[in-house]
Design goal:
The complex is a heterodimer of chains A (183) and B (394). Chain A has nine helices and no strands. Chain A has 183 residues and is mainly α. The mean pLDDT of chain A is 83. Chain B is built from eight helices and eleven strands. Chain B has an eight-stranded antiparallel β-barrel with strand order 1-4-5-6-7-9-10-11. The N terminus of chain B is likely disordered. Classes of the chains: A mainly alpha (183), B alpha+beta (394).
Chain lengths: 183, 394
């Protein structure tokens, strides 16, 4: 987002409509991609995108120009998505448990590289909400398990197990899609 | 957080492939700025609140001036009326004031005809009543209708002597004020209060609480109890312009203060308050369908355009012991105007010919408007209101 100048961000934080419009138009597609991964549907994602921008504009004054603005904004949208998931009380209901077996994910990773990105997002969106949320936070947003656990109010172990189950489910879906060979 | 995800050492091939493919993937959700700005609750932040103090001070000053002026005029009217009544009593010719008012109120009455046909000048030194400008219906006994008693002769002689002594052979003018005069007034009004289910204010409440508490409590789902709305308080000044007899156009300036709050207990007490300030321009038509004294009735209907000047919010977290853990306050985005329609019935109580108090219960319908912070007007657009004030004829 190099075209979002510090001046634009400052004006946006001060409530200038034109600057807010610039920020909105610069971020809306990438942030829709973010919330879509957490939401169950595009309609829901659209609502979350709306709420995320409201929150973003409300909190712009808190941006300290440390690190990229897009990364900071992304965190606001992730936080918005998590709030919505919490309200639906879906995150905590079906957390998984059990042993984690060692798995080589390199084949699945090759499949991920071959599949169309839009279709991949649909597959991620079709995961059970707890698996989808942990996979998004850990694998895609780059949170550590400790951060995921803190963010979601679960144990670190629970985060690890849920991530493992998410990858297993995703691998099965990739096989169903014919992206990965069935063993 | 940087632009690229911060890969932690526990990631594997699949994590890296997922991040590579979708972390920065753009998707078109069909959203655009126009739709967003229409739907969202607010845009610009009103940062300065100095004007609010000045506006409140000006309003108080204006209310004081109008109220004080009204009181003085009322006092002056009372003195004048008392002097007039005293004079009329001394002259023994004044008909009861109620009769005069009743006679004035009846179109086509003798007094009404007299007021049309001649200027409102009455010579109290003459032995003829003010209510009998013609000789058709004498209001008091005269020499023409019956023989004078010795007391009447004495009274008439005294009146003439007094008139001569004061050198006022000219008729003594007694001014009767026209009913069709401009009126100014001041009033206060209360709207409905109530509560709205937690569904609508929840995002506002949850966002404010999360902002206050910070990310370390971010796994909490802030679900407030019902949002409570206090009585909206309105104060205003009015100007009534007579159009035709009984019909007047009212306008003025009004200021409204709205306060709402929500709270929830989750180990600690989480409370959220916000207030909105409106400045408005009302326009209405009023019809006096019962013109009597001291009490009259009228119906009124009109519209008002109110500009949301500013909103502020405050959120706080208190421990179960009551000690303050965290708090935040600041402006809330607010924008645009809110239109409303009002219908009411009013009761006028005349304290004097110039000054009257009134009470006006009514119903107000606020047009749908989502550019304002959630409040009782946006959540419950039809509300009862009660306005009470004072009007002074100029």
């Amino acid at each position: 987002m190099s075209f979002l100048t510090p001046n634009t961000i400052r004006r946006c934080a001060a409530g200038h409509t034109e600057a807010q419009r610039e920020v909105y138009e610069a971020l809306q597609r990438v942030m829709f991609g973010v919330v879509l991964r957490y939401a169950g549907s595009r309609e829901e994602a659209r609502d979350w995108l709306h709420d995320g921008f409201i929150r973003l504009f409300d909190r712009m004054g808190g941006y300290r120009f440390e690190g990229s603005f897009e990364g900071w904004a992304r965190r606001v949208f992730v936080s918005t998505a998590l709030d919505h998931l919490r309200q639906k009380r879906l995150i905590w209901s079906d957390l998984d448990s059990g042993p984690i077996e060692a798995v080589d994910w390199s084949v699945a990773a090759d499949g991920i590289d071959r599949i169309d990105a839009d279709r991949l997002i649909e597959l991620i969106g079709a995961l059970p909400p707890p698996q989808r949320t942990v996979l998004n936070l850990f694998s895609i947003e780059g949170y550590a398990h400790e951060e995921v656990a803190e963010e979601l109010g679960i144990s670190v172990e629970n985060s690890r197990i849920t991530l493992h189950r998410a990858k297993q489910t995703l691998e099965q879906r990739l096989k169903k899609e014919g992206i990965l060979p069935s063993r | 957080m940087s632009n690229q995800p911060k890969y932690n050492p526990t990631t594997d091939d699949l994590d890296r492939a997922l991040a590579r493919r979708v972390a920065d993937h753009k998707a078109d959700g069909g959203a655009d700025w126009a739709a967003f700005s229409v739907r969202r609750t607010s845009v610009p932040i009103v940062k300065s609140r100095r004007w609010m103090g000045a506006a409140a001070a000006a309003m108080v000053l204006l209310l004081g001036l109008v109220g004080g002026g009204g009181y003085l005029l009322g006092w002056y009217d009372q003195v004048e009326e008392q002097a007039l009544a005293l004079t009329e009593t001394k002259l023994h010719i004044a008909p009861p004031q109620e009769d005069l008012i009743e006679a004035e109120a009846k179109p086509g009455s003798l007094l009404a005809q007299a007021r049309v046909s001649r200027p409102p000048i009455v010579d109290f030194s003459m032995p003829v009543s003010v209510a009998t400008p013609t000789n058709e219906v004498p209001a008091t006994p005269t020499a023409d209708s019956s023989p004078e008693t010795p007391e009447q002769v004495q009274t008439r002689t005294t009146r003439s002597a007094n008139a001569t002594a004061y050198g006022s052979q000219e008729p003594t003018p007694i001014r009767r004020r026209s009913k069709n005069r401009l009126q100014i007034g001041a009033y206060a009004a209360l709207g409905s209060s109530g509560s709205t289910p937690n569904k609508s204010p929840q995002p506002q409440f949850a966002a404010a609480m999360e902002y206050t508490v910070g990310k370390y409590q971010g796994n909490m789902a802030f679900t407030p109890e019902d949002m409570k709305h206090d009585f909206p308080v309105t104060v205003g000044v009015s100007l009534d312009i007579p159009l035709v007899p009984r019909l007047r156009l009212s306008t003025g300036l009004l200021y409204t203060y709205i306060h709402s709050s929500a709270s929830t207990s989750m180990g600690a007490e989480y409370r959220y308050d916000y207030q909105t300030h409106y400045l408005g321009l009302p326009v209405s038509l009023s019809y006096d369908f019962l013109v009597t004294r001291p009490v009259g009735l009228y119906v009124t209907g009109g519209t008002a355009i109110e500009l949301a000047l500013a909103s502020t919010e405050r959120s706080e977290v208190r421990a179960a012991t009551g000690s303050l853990i965290s708090e935040k306050s600041g402006p809330v985005d607010t924008r645009g105007v809110m239109a409303s329609f009002h219908l009411g019935v009013g009761v006028n109580v005349h304290l004097s010919p110039r000054v009257g108090l009134y009470a006006e219960p009514g119903i107000t319908s606020y047009l749908s408007n989502d550019t304002h912070p959630i409040n009782f007007r946006t959540a419950s657009p039809v509300q009862f209101s009660l306005r009470a004030g004072i009007r002074v004829k100029l």
